[in-house]
Design brief:
Length: about 170
């Protein structure tokens, strides 16, 4: 068992202290103080019972087994049981892969920015401005046109030449 090194706060009621008490890892003075608080505090007693039950359940599930003589002999001899296997470290990444990633990111950025700027310079798909002007010249001012997508929404604003067709 491993003992907890001092200094230990005698008023500590943490889960770590309760588990150390259940495992028998506390010095006698600290354990006695913690036992006195457990006897007077039902909530603390319930918390301790959980750790004690866990310890007893694990001891029942995994009983101690004798250490094999082969292992004892190997430890006492101080030599490994077989030839050691030495695995070399992986090589460190050089700056080249980072430069390649930076170049790829720059290429993606350049293509994306070029496509955006090219798209802004192109006219919108569909009718050209001349075709739209010709179609509007045939409609009298203030006339209502049928809306294929639903109904017209809003009023004719005095200075805004756009309509919204609500679906």
């Amino acid at each position: 068992m491993t003992r907890i090194d001092p200094p230990i706060d005698p008023n500590d009621e943490s889960d770590e202290m309760l588990m150390a008490l259940a495992d028998g890892e506390l010095d006698e003075t600290t354990a006695e103080r913690l036992w006195q608080r457990i006897e007077t505090d039902p909530a603390l007693a319930d918390r301790f019972a959980l750790f004690a039950d866990t310890r007893h359940g694990l001891q029942a599930a995994y009983p101690p087994e004798p250490v094999p003589d082969r292992l004892i002999a190997t430890v006492m001899a101080g030599t490994p049981a077989s030839d050691p296997v030495v695995v070399p470290f992986r090589r460190r990444l050089s700056a080249r892969p980072m430069a390649a990633w930076a170049m790829a990111a720059s290429l993606v950025l350049a293509v994306g920015l070029g496509g955006f700027l090219a798209g802004r310079a192109m006219p919108p798909a569909g009718a050209t401005l001349q075709q739209a002007a010709a179609a509007l010249a045939q409609v009298p001012t203030g006339a209502r046109l049928p809306c294929r997508a639903g109904r017209w929404r809003g009023r004719w604003p005095a200075m805004t030449p756009t309509w919204v067709c609500a679906v």
